[in-house]
Design goal:
It is found in: Cytoplasm. By secondary structure, the protein is mainly beta. The protein has helices spanning about 1-10, 35-40, 120-125, and strands at about 20, 25-30, 45-50, 55, 60-65, 75-80, 85, 100, 110, 115-120, 135, 145-150, 150-155, 160-164.
């Protein structure tokens, strides 16, 4: 009974087929991202988060496959098979790394909850950029029953936002 309740209220499933929020904030559907690449799910299905803090953590166990030079995005191959992109903000590549600090590099093994990146949300917003953070499963076709969860407050490294 408690296992069912835990699943219902955002607990992790025993088979590990969930992706947690990489940042705390409000989860919203990808359709609310003001960029067609994300809102039309061109790169894959996912959930976006309007962050409440500037700290990105690993959403699942896996390996960092890429950290963009501009540190505004990174990709992870999770142990459960998902190929993820975490993209902080819209057009933030234009900041050329300013206001971002990476704590990992390509090849690093990570555990769910490990710190990946910090970003100065206030300075990014003051520079005129939206900080909404899409979390995309790039290999969506491998997960025919993928479920993207939104419409709630989420806690980094804890709240499930994608069920594979």
């Amino acid at each position: 009974m408690f296992g069912s309740l835990k699943k219902l209220f955002g607990g992790e499933e025993k088979d590990g087929k969930v992706i947690a929020a990489p940042v705390s904030g409000k989860a919203v559907p990808m359709s609310q991202v003001n960029d067609p690449t994300f809102s039309q799910e061109i790169l894959g299905k996912g959930t976006a988060i309007i962050p409440s803090e500037g700290r990105i953590v690993a959403p699942a166990d896996g390996q960092v496959t890429m950290v963009f030079d501009t540190k505004h995005a990174l990709s992870i191959q999770t142990d459960n098979g998902a190929e993820l992109i975490i993209h902080i903000g819209l057009d933030t590549v234009q900041l050329k790394g300013q206001y971002f600090e990476a704590h990992v590099q390509a090849g690093d093994k990570v555990k769910k909850g490990d710190l990946l990146l910090d970003f100065d949300m206030d300075k990014i917003k003051a520079a005129g950029y939206d900080v909404i953070t899409p979390v995309i499963v790039c290999n969506t076709p491998q997960f025919p029953k993928i479920e993207c969860i939104s419409g709630m407050d989420v806690k980094a490294g804890e709240t499930a936002i994608i069920k594979l």
